[in-house]
């Protein structure tokens, strides 16, 4: 993705100033929400390496296959709890909208994040109806 294109996470910044440096490993996510946004962006651009690196080591899948027919459209952050620069745990509820198989869908999840070796990582999530 071009550095100057708007970031898929829709925070309103160019990719090169928003999630790009996180995906490239140039800087860590400062908050759980920032990690959530960067993981959404990784799904949108197909960066399975970043997804695995940002997953808690105890829950990280060995293989991660993304559906090439699924196109992520936009992300809504519903709420956050904790997950700030001085927290060790955080929660982010989000709705990720996508297009697949000729139709639209959404993934509504409440995700838990923790710090591992000082960095925010995705622990797990519960899909919401």
Automatic annotation (TrEMBL):
Span of domain YchJ-like middle NTF2-like: 31-125
Pfam families attached to this UniProt entry: YchJ_M-like
SUPFAM superfamilies: NTF2-like
Coiled coil: none
Family to which this protein belongs: Belongs to the UPF0225 family.
Protein name: UPF0225 protein BJ987_002292
Organism ancestry: Bacteria, Bacillati, Actinomycetota, Actinomycetes, Mycobacteriales
């Amino acid at each position: 993705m071009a550095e100057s294109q708007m970031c898929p996470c829709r925070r309103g910044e160019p990719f090169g100033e928003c999630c790009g440096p996180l995906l490239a490993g140039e800087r860590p996510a400062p908050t759980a929400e920032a990690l959530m946004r960067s993981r959404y962006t990784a799904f949108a651009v197909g960066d399975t390496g970043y997804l695995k690196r940002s997953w808690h080591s105890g829950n990280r899948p060995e293989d991660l296959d993304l559906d090439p027919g699924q196109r992520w459209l936009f992300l809504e952050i519903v709420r956050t709890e904790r997950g700030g620069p001085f927290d060790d745990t955080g929660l982010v509820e989000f709705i990720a909208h996508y297009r697949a198989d000729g139709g639209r869908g959404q993934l509504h999840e409440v995700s838990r994040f923790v710090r591992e070796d000082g960095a925010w990582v995705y622990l797990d999530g519960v899909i919401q109806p």
